[in-house]
Amino acid sequence: MVHAFVLIEAEPARIADLAEALTEVDGVSEAYSVSGEVADLVAIVRVRQHDDLAEVVTRRIAGLPGILATSTLVAFKAYSRHDLEAIWDLGPR
Fold this sequence. Notes:
alpha+beta
């Protein structure tokens, strides 16, 4: 399982629409509007393989109208008191 955080710079007028569109992208589990200088949106991506991550980020996310730039942070390991396997379970293969 590959988990990634995609920081997205977007056209200001498109942020709300993009947040909703991101939740419809296969592989994106959550999308957040954020404040700060780094990004306008953050998409949480959970996929089975690195090749799937490339498809989600470079084609599905970057191809949405209004996205100016993306930066992807790939998680090495998750640390939490919650049952992350249950939270991030994609179901049967």
